[in-house]
Amino acid sequence: MTTHLLTGAGSGIGAALARRLLDRGDEVVVLARDAGRARQIAEELPGVSPVVGDLAQPGRLSWALSKQSLPDRIDSLVHAAGVVDLGTVGDLTPALWDRQLAVNLVAPAELTRLLLPVLRVSRGHVVFVNSGAGLRANPGWSAYAASKHGLKALADALRLEEAEYGVRVTSVYPGRTATPMQERVHQQEGQEYDPTRFITPEAIATTILTALDLPRDAHLTDLTVRPQG
């Protein structure tokens, strides 16, 4: 039995990946921000095992996980959660910076740190679902792009640090994907949202599975995915 721990499994890319993993018989543990959300995800994704930890408070993750049972073996850790608040540098408040950096960067770093001992034993795989904004910053995207540029740096450093333990690290950089987050982005941009114009979450889930399923003699480090057309 292969075991995966996912963040962001409540919707979008994380939910699509969780379904694919469950359908093929893998064990899926999902991180939810609170008990109510954990129950909701468990109802939407029968077969998952939820644990509670709020990514907006990364300093409390260690305490939260210490009060719950985690699998003895974890083969992959997939960071698919994220938040975005658009705004110019002149308008973004410290609270908006703090929220995006906490959820998109500091929490993945802390969760990875906490789970590294078991990932080393299993020679596991860490996947960071980044963004095109992790490679290029556009006007209005400074805080989100900064968090995602930081996530790239985290992944690059982790890959080199953990190579001796056989832990693989992959960054996936999706372009605009038809998720609830993308719908919210369009609301912030004042644009009409048409999900047919964008990548499906299932396509990104397939990309992640490709990286996870690659034989041990190879390692996909960075994958960029863009909408067709």
Number of H- or I-type helical stretches: 7
- Spatial order of the strands in the main sheet? 3-2-1-4-5-6-7
User: Could you list the spans in which at least 5 consecutive residues all have pLDDT below 50?
Assistant: none
| First and last CA, distance | 39 Å
Average pLDDT rating: 95
Quaternary class? single chain
Shape: globular
Computed over alpha carbons, the radius of gyration is 17 Å
Determine the fraction of residues in helical runs and give it as a percent range. 40-55%
- The helix-strand sequence is EHEHEHEHEHEHHE
Number of strands: 7
Strand fraction equals 15-25%
Structural class: alpha/beta
Largest beta-sheet details: 7 strands, parallel
Please give a structural write-up.
The structure is a single chain. The chain is of the alpha/beta class and 229 residues long. It contains 7 helices and 7 strands; from the N terminus they run βαβαβαβαβαβααβ. A 7-stranded parallel sheet has the order 3-2-1-4-5-6-7, sandwiched between helices. Helix 1 packs across helix 7 and helix 4 (94-122) packs parallel to helix 5.
